[in-house]
Design brief:
CATH architecture of the largest domain: 3-Layer(aba) Sandwich
Order of helices and strands: EHEEHEHEHEHEHEHEHEHHEHEEHEHHH
Largest sheet: 6 strands, mixed
CATH superfamily of the largest domain: P-loop containing nucleotide triphosphate hydrolases
Strand content: 15-25%
Oligomer: single chain
CATH class of the largest domain: Alpha Beta
Structural class: alpha/beta
Shape: elongated
Length: about 400
């Protein structure tokens, strides 16, 4: 049986706990998880930053629990904490609003409910401290709330029922397409080209590579894995022509030269953009590079945070490739982790990583944010393929998308 703690954060249901200071958020989080996950204190503002933990929560399964600072925090630092709390909404699959039962729903709680509804986020209103107050009248009065429950973090009253309620709302959207399963048949050979260089994680493959190999094997096909320098020899040594070659984006140019034209070639970035339903948007975003002018700003954004190394693809290789292709004097900005700007109107283009470490909710938020502000957005791999003149070839496997390059 797989170790559930090894399931990537991006594939887990994200459950965010929100509310005013001293409403008992952290106490309810500890009661729901059965752990002392969050520090509990009578002092207002004990939770100063979102606290996040990946765990298994029955009856839901693998989840990420997020305890947030109070929405009513005060002062300059308080404003920053509230901003971080609101950022958590962008990656939350189910929101749990903790209300002090003795006070009922306050204006700050109402503001959060409005945010949940604006983002079409399923939510539960939890009236905490039911051991201290008769909640019948309060709950009956709040007729506009569909999902509500009275609990006591102290006595554990209705905590199990709360978990059941969260489980009913925690329905993950199904991917738009498989990664590769519909492109191959049983017995097909699929060659995966994976560079192992200074930027590659030690001792493992990155998540998209793992997931692609797993789906190939589940399809009854054969996965052949090599580095770019071994591709030519690998192709020559196979007993039959591979159905598909899939490459890491930064080796696109090298791999394209070595892969015969009668073999379909694509990349992990392209497959995962289609898998998540944003391939068309990403292709259109890459084409927008043709409209860049001197002085334009380009945002290069990564979903994860990692130690930058010499030759880093996001901060060094991509800017150099884009600058060389456009021959324009461009200004580059960079973001990583959760620090994706709310206002992107100062940028002429956004180039985002594949988002393998972000959950689907947050990746969709970033893409939709760019679309709403009419800023083209694409991903690393598709941009690299376009710059090197091989995106058209890489999309032959998807003729309905290839047309956007004509």
């Amino acid at each position: 049986m797989a170790n559930l703690n090894q399931i990537p954060s991006g594939n887990r249901v994200h459950i965010g706990f929100f509310g005013k200071r001293n409403a008992g958020k952290s106490s309810v989080v500890n009661a729901v998880t059965g752990q002392n996950l969050a520090i509990v204190s009578d002092t207002k503002g004990t939770t100063t930053d979102p606290v996040q933990k990946a765990m298994e929560l029955l009856p839901i399964g693998p989840v990420v629990i997020i305890d947030t600072p109070g929405i009513d925090d005060e002062g300059e630092l308080g404003a920053l904490r509230v901003k971080r709390t609101k950022q958590v909404l962008n990656k939350t699959d189910v929101a749990v609003l903790i209300v002090d039962a003795q006070l009922g729903i306050m204006p700050e709680d109402q503001e959060l409910i409005q945010l949940f509804e604006q983002k079409q986020l399923p939510y539960i209103v939890v009236y905490n401290k039911s051991d201290l107050a008769d909640l019948t009248e309060k709950m009956e009065k709040d007729t506009f709330i569909q999902n509500k429950i009275a609990v006591s973090a102290l006595t554990k009253e209705n905590i199990y029922e709360l978990k059941e309620m969260i489980g009913r709302l925690a329905v993950k959207e199904k991917p738009h397409f498989p990664i590769v399963q519909d492109l191959i048949e049983r017995g097909d050979f699929v060659v995966l080209v994976i560079p192992i260089d200074a930027a590659a994680p030690k001792g493992r493959l990155i998540l998209p590579q793992q997931q692609t190999i797993r789906e190939i094997l589940e399809s009854g096909a054969v996965a052949v894995v090599c580095q770019p320098t071994e591709l030519k020899e690998t192709l020559a040594g196979l007993s039959k022509k591979p159905k598909l070659v899939i490459t890491d984006s930064q080796a696109f140019g090298q791999v394209s030269q070595m892969t015969p034209d009668d073999i379909l070639l694509t990349s992990f970035s392209i497959l995962f953009a289609r898998h998540k339903g944003n391939l068309e948007q990403a292709v259109k975003g890459a084409v927008a590079i043709e409209t860049l002018k001197d002085g334009d700003a380009v945002l290069i954004s990564e979903g994860c945070t990692h130690h930058r190394q010499c030759g880093d693809i996001g901060t060094e290789k991509l800017p150099a490739w884009i600058q060389n292709y456009t021959k324009k004097k461009l200004n580059f900005a960079f973001s990583s982790g959760t620090e994706f700007p709310e206002d992107v109107t100062s940028y002429s283009m956004i180039v985002h990583c594949g988002g393998c470490m972000l959950n689907e909710k947050e990746m969709k938020y970033r893409q939709q944010s760019a679309m709403d502000q009419q800023i083209p957005i694409t991903n690393y791999g598709i941009m690299i393929a376009y710059i090197h003149g091989i995106l058209k070839r890489s999309l032959k496997v998807f003729p309905d998308i290839e047309k956007y390059l004509l």
